[in-house]
Design a protein that fits this description.
Number of helices: 19
Distance between the termini: 81 Å
CATH class of one domain: Alpha Beta
Shape: elongated
Strand order of the largest sheet: 3-4-7
Largest sheet: 3 strands, antiparallel
Radius of gyration: 32 Å
Order of helices and strands: EHEHHEHHEEEEHEHEEHHHEHHHHHHHHH
Number of strands: 11
Length: about 500
RNA sequence: GUCUCCAUCGUCUAGUGGUUAGGACACCGGGUUUUCAUCCCGGCAACGGGGUUUCGAUUACCCCUGGAGAUGCCA
């Protein structure tokens, strides 16, 4: 029997790290074993499901490059794949359970349930439904339903015995039936199923072979098995994935930092970096390899290498991966990622002018190895497209020098630049490199003559041109900015220093 | 409260009945460098505790401790 797995998110918020980790593992498992990967939208919570969240789901999967074989818009004969469109199926299945005596209608109001819970909490007793309606006779129940009384359908959980399931990672686990939620709701008052019913019914109807989901679902494993049993179905194989935690060991959440894929995307992370890093949360290949493309994972992924213990999400390692992937990325493709950022940040016009494209292309090689996030490009290149002002003139003064000294050093630099030839056009790489070399030689010679450190000449100049202590390499920066503008900014800083 | 799961450097992890317990990130130091970054070299740092089995346990088993998760007409 070929593998059929699914990712079954509920569209109640943006896709987050934990969710897509589950999606990825299911996807890789399907691909590695020639199986089928299914997307199922579990929107049975009418209160919380939103169109925005649904849109985010599709956008996220597309961005990550996760393609599903069956799902909304990709019918494989088991649709529909959106649970709200399957309402009738659950209704029938719930009725079936009532008829076979595996479930019963419950007329308790949520007010009564709230009061009950409060009472139990105060008495420090076990929390849960008191099975108040379990013994109502079928006739009475039918009559009350007939009369229009609101009700839910609850599963009749056996009072005795134990229910276990086999987990690929954990082995056999389970719990005594008396420890399972007392008679959980299968069908809500609004006629929609709860997660438990819909999930089991769909997994069975869609012929799912393996359920891979986070370990937070372990406690409902036995309950689900009970539901399968009630229908007379065989449960699929289970594989509960280790959870993703924050720095403090608690379930990863907003207070730890970014958690949604869209946030990472907006912050300038590459999908290949995120996929690679997230895949290593609870899974590993061997003791040395840690770079994996999506295609690698589609081949190499295996259940045996999944870890049992929870993993802490390390933002810094993700950053490192991102820097690595930026440097590995095809330059032309990387440029198409970078340009829109400069446009939306208002650094260059939209569409960019030919001059702006030239400057960008010229700057690209020198900033590429400096980027950790794509968005880092904006602060790095701003000075090339707009006058950054003087900045903090104090920063122009090298160690063991004063403002006057810095002004003198700057003047020397100004002279050298004034005497320089006009920089070549961006396309001519050899000429550009040569020009940069010549400037370097000029400044070294001058520094040596005057017995200055070269840094003492370049620091004030760097500040003059970029208004920052930190910048891309200076001579390429000057070349791209243009001699005229560079000299203007230099003169301006000299004046400022002399007036300090 | 009850139930369940988990336990190797700060973090992600590899690994074994006998190893100097390996790698990566982070951190620290050094080199390259006009700053920053990249890159290179080096360093720091772990088997939670107690028992049992065994010639020998980080590795198997038990207990403890610690952490987490679940206890909804949310998923």
């Amino acid at each position: 029997m070929s593998v059929r797995v699914r990712y079954a998110p509920s569209p109640t918020g943006q896709q987050h790290i934990g969710g897509i980790r589950t999606a990825l593992f299911n996807y890789f498992f399907a691909r590695a074993g020639g199986g089928t990967f299914i997307l199922r939208v579990e929107d049975t919570d009418r209160e919380r499901s939103t169109p925005d969240a649904l849109e985010d789901l599709y956008a996220t999967l597309t961005w990550l490059g996760v393609e599903y074989d069956e799902g909304p818009g990709m019918d494989g004969g088991y649709g529909p794949y959106v649970q709200s469109e399957r309402k009738q199926i659950y209704r029938e299945k719930a009725d079936e359970l009532v008829i076979t005596g595996k479930a019963y209608p419950c007329f308790c109001t949520s007010e009564r349930l709230d009061a009950l819970r409060k009472e139990q909490k105060a008495a420090r007793k076990n929390i849960g439904y008191d099975r108040h309606c379990r013994e109502i006779s079928p006739d009475e129940a039918a009559a009350r339903i007939e009369a229009g009384e609101k009700h839910v359908i609850r599963l009749k959980v056996p009072l005795e015995g134990k229910t276990v399931f086999e987990d690929i990672l954990l082995g056999q686990t389970g719990r005594k039936n008396k420890d399972i939620n007392p008679d959980p709701v299968m069908l809500k008052t609004d006629g929609f199923p709860t997660y438990h019913l819909a999930n089991v019914v769909d997994d069975h109807l869609m012929k799912i072979t393996h359920i891979m989901r986070a370990q937070e679902w372990i406690p409902s494993g036995p309950l689900h098995v009970l539901i399968y049993n009630a229908f007379g179905w065989a449960p699929p194989a289970y594989c509960h994935l280790p959870m993703v935690m924050g720095k403090d060991g608690q379930k990863l959440s907003k207070r730890h930092g970014s958690t949604t894929v869209s946030e990472f995307r907006k912050a300038g992370y590459l999908p290949e970096a995120l996929v690679n890093y997230v895949s290593l949360l609870g899974w590993s290949y061997d003791d040395s390899r840690e770079f994996f493309s999506k295609n690698d994972l589609c081949e190499l992924f295996s259940l045996e290498k999944i870890n049992k213990s929870p993993a802490v999400f390390d933002y810094r390692k993700l950053d490192w991966f991102n820097g690595q992937y930026i440097r590995m990325k095809n330059p032309e493709i990387l440029k198409t990622d970078l340009l829109p950022i400069l446009m939306s940040d208002g650094i260059i016009s939209d569409p960019p002018s030919p001059e702006q494209i030239d400057i960008f292309n010229g700057a690209f090689p020198i900033i590429r190895e400096r980027l950790k996030l794509l968005n880092d490009i904006t602060p790095m290149l701003r000075f090339l497209f707009a006058d950054p002002g003087i900045g903090n003139a104090e920063d122009a003064i090298p160690k063991k020098m004063d403002a006057a000294g810095a002004a003198v050093a700057l003047k020397a630099g100004l002279e050298l630049l004034s005497a320089a030839t006009e920089p070549p056009v961006v396309g001519d790489e050899d000429a550009c490199a040569a020009w940069d070399e010549e400037r370097d030689a000029d400044f070294r010679r001058a520094a040596e003559e005057k017995e200055w450190k070269i840094g003492a000449m370049l620091q004030p100049l760097r500040l003059a041109v970029t208004a920052s202590k930190v910048s891309p390499p200076l001579f390429p920066a000057i070349r791209l900015l243009g001699l005229k503008e560079s000299l203007k900014r230099t003169e301006r800083l000299i004046t400022a220093l002399e007036n300090m």
